[in-house]
Design goal:
The complex is a heterodimer of chains A (about 160) and B (about 260). Chain A has one domain: Arp2/3 complex 21 kDa subunit ARPC3 (Orthogonal Bundle). Helices cover about 75% and strands about 0% of the residues of chain A. In chain A, helix 1 packs parallel to helix 4. The termini of chain A are close together. Chain B is mainly alpha-helical and about 260 residues long. Chain B has a domain of about 160 residues. The N terminus of chain B is likely disordered. The chains are: A mainly alpha (about 160), B mainly alpha (about 260). Chain A: Keywords: Membrane, Transmembrane, Transmembrane helix.
């Protein structure tokens, strides 16, 4: 791994955690921050360059370490992100337009919330489909909102060229 | 904001739990998370509760820290309990509320699930309360070491985590500074429709990304200038070592697991 790639990913992970924590400053946005995390929009970074994969995974991992639910979310949270990002990277071979790719990314992450619903099902015995629906709705909302935000950010920051 | 700068939940101390090798803590907690699902009787839950209570006492972490960690999930525990109370219709009718029958099976199921989740949270939070994030990173690097054989970038991943941990407070300060600067220009993060508040996040993220990438570039240049060449042949400041206490804890935990299977109904 190139030093630039390693360091940029580390900083992206740090930014993921920092923005997650800053969310606490805005209580109305953080009311359901278990699944409604603003840095979830960073998942769109793999659309611009697949090398952001590790930065996002480490960000999710560290955020879950600092979360009150402790290591419990680690396995399922990281698995959800890793599987989804893997699928999105593979989709990048056939989808070339960034916006279409981000829409696909949103749908993949939303669909894969069944992993989190499964976590809730085995941990709390909560109804699987109900949990899937509610967690997926939160993910769909934040990821959809993230499309114009990341598109606008990319015009200024050029994510694809930095890493 | 100052309180927010204290990232993680680590409570410094020198208790037996603090001194355990982080790999031992991760392994024991991982298997606790697995085996807690095997509890299905009063006595099996009682055994796991005693194990959790002894662990908390041995960690010497003030109970208020653990209670603080539980605050955000009380709602989930109570909600789950009530859901099982309403949905489960097994056993005899215990009582009626507004002509809604509550069954003994529902009460038992609600208590069992809530207790299981409570135990999971208490025991898993002990890891982050008694282990620094850097120790966790070191432990993960050691535990993932076999994956190096299949060319998985274990060292790079661990270094990435260490660098991230170093940058989190800096970027949080930066976020705070930028959000205050934007607020002084009239950007309102706290009120208004959700759409407007989301929009307000953009002018926060642009300078944040620019500044973060600038820091990354400077660090990458510094590392290259100092001849960083990956993990090959590098020594470590902190060496992890499995001691006698760790072995004792493994034996104790195996006894608890054996007891759990004996006490299952």
């Amino acid at each position: 791994m190139k030093i630039q790639t390693l360091v940029v990913n580390a900083v992206i992970a740090a930014l993921y955690v920092a923005v997650s924590m800053v969310l606490l400053i805005f209580p109305p946005l953080a009311f359901s921050n278990i699944q409604f995390r603003i840095p979830e929009i960073f998942n769109h970074l793999v659309v611009f360059n697949k090398k952001y994969f590790f930065g996002i995974i480490v960000g999710v991992f560290l955020t879950n370490i600092f979360s009150p639910t402790g290591v419990y979310d680690l396995i399922f949270g990281v698995a959800h992100s890793a599987i989804s990002l893997g699928i999105v990277i593979l989709l990048g071979r056939i989808i070339k337009k960034p916006v279409t790719h981000m829409i696909a990314n949103t749908l993949v992450f939303t669909f894969n919330m069944f992993i989190i619903a499964f976590e809730l099902y085995i941990a709390l015995d909560l109804p699987f489909f109900w949990s899937w629906l509610t967690t997926a709705a939160g993910e769909l909302g934040i990821m959809a909102v993230g499309i114009p935000i990341m598109y606008a950010l990319n015009k200024k920051v050029r994510f694809g060229q930095i890493i | 904001m100052n309180n927010m700068m204290i990232i993680g939940q680590y409570v410094p101390g020198n208790s037996i739990i603090h001194r355990l090798d982080p790999r031992t803590k991760i392994t024991v907690i991982f298997f606790f998370v697995v085996f807690v699902f095997f509890a299905n009787s009063f006595w099996s839950y009682a055994l796991l509760t005693v194990f959790a209570a002894v662990s908390v006492i041995a960690s010497r972490v003030p109970v208020r820290y653990i209670a603080k960690g539980l605050t955000p999930i009380w709602f989930l525990i109570v909600f789950t309990f009530l859901l099982h109370l309403i949905v489960t219709k097994e056993g005899q009718v215990a009582f009626e509320i507004f002509s809604w029958k509550i069954y003994t099976g529902g009460i038992a199921q609600g208590i069992a699930i809530s207790m299981r989740f409570f135990l999971l949270i208490v025991v898993t939070s002990l890891l982050t309360l008694t282990t620094t994030p850097i120790e966790i990173t070191d432990a993960i690097e050691e535990m993932l070491a076999p994956l190096k054989k299949v060319k998985f970038p274990v060292h790079e991943l661990a270094l990435m985590m260490s660098i991230s941990l170093r940058f989190i407070p800096t970027l949080m300060q930066e976020t705070d500074k930028i959000s205050k600067a934007q607020a002084s220009r009239g950007v309102d993060f706290r009120t208004g429709p959700l759409k407007e508040r989301i929009k307000a996040v953009v002018p926060l993220l642009v300078p944040l990304f620019v500044s973060a990438f600038k820091r990354a570039e400077e660090l990458a240049m510094a590392m290259e200038a100092r001849g960083y060449q990956g993990g090959e042949g590098r020594s470590k400041l902190r060496e992890l070592r499995i001691g006698k206490i760790d072995v004792l804890i493994y034996i104790l935990f195996i006894c608890v697991v054996a007891g759990l299977f004996l006490l299952r109904s």
